[in-house]
Specification:
This protein has 265 residues and is an alpha/beta fold. 45% of the residues lie in helices and 12% in strands. The protein contains eight helices and six strands, in the order αβααβαβαβααββα. Helix 5 links the parallel strand 3 and strand 4. The longest helix is centred in the middle third of the chain and has 24 residues. The relative contact order is 0.18. The N terminus is likely disordered. Bound molecules: farnesyl diphosphate. The site of farnesyl diphosphate has 18 residues, from helix 2, helix 3, strand 2 and helix 4.
Amino acid sequence: MFKDTLSRLFRKREEHIIPGKKSTAGMSASDFKRLPKHVAIIMDGNGRWAKRHRLAVSKGHRQGTENLREIIRHTDDLGIHSLSLYAFSTENWSRPKEEVDALMQLILDFFASEIDELDAKNVHILILGDKSRLPEKQRLTLVEAEERTSGNTGLHLNIAINYGGRDEIARAARILASEAANGRLDPSTITEKTIAEHLYTHGQPDVDLLIRTSGEMRLSNFLLFQCAYAEFIFPKVLWPDFSVKAYDEALSDFGGRQRRFGARI
Ligand code: FPP
């Protein structure tokens, strides 16, 4: 009870410290039975949200980015280890040019407005995906964000850009094959752990909870290896409307799941 009051007071204090920023007003870590160590989110439904509001699809993505800020802040407040976000897949290049351009612009805008706060909050940013195919400006922005926050020890914020799960596994295979060809690795010693160590997310826990908004129930090539034992939650709400409250509901749902990891309990 006392702890509850304290945490509420603390949240109130934060509202004053960050003027102009909306409070997450979400639940606190002690309100949950169990929290995931690693949450992955497929932020789906921006296009449908835009259509519903008779807006251009780019506006849906922009609204989705606004929403993202609150979700990141709340994840950080809860003390969750890793948050992985699917921002741009290797397949998204085939979308209309205006939409791809809008998403590329959003990447620049997001980092321009968020990097100071994320760094101040000790957030460690990691980009999952092949940055070499991105326009130079975006590539440099991402490299700078990674370098600037590389020593941070708080929330691991993984943002998947030009990412594909199969591509990530193929990349790990290429690295291991070349180490074997150079005689630095004995192929018979390769285990699941060796592969995990050569993925973008090396050193981080497997995904415990995958959330995909908009009612679609697919993995769409996201973190294929890391999601082997993930719990899946598919809220019907479109991503721009996915509130901190809806996030807390998904986290509570996760807390009630019985996880067996293939064993009989
Ligand atoms: C899927 O919705 C969403 C995307 C392909 C992009 C998600 C990206 C953001 C929210 C911007 C994030 C930016 C940064 C820098 C983190 P959809 O367009 O497929 O929706 P639809 O299925 O309703 O058309």
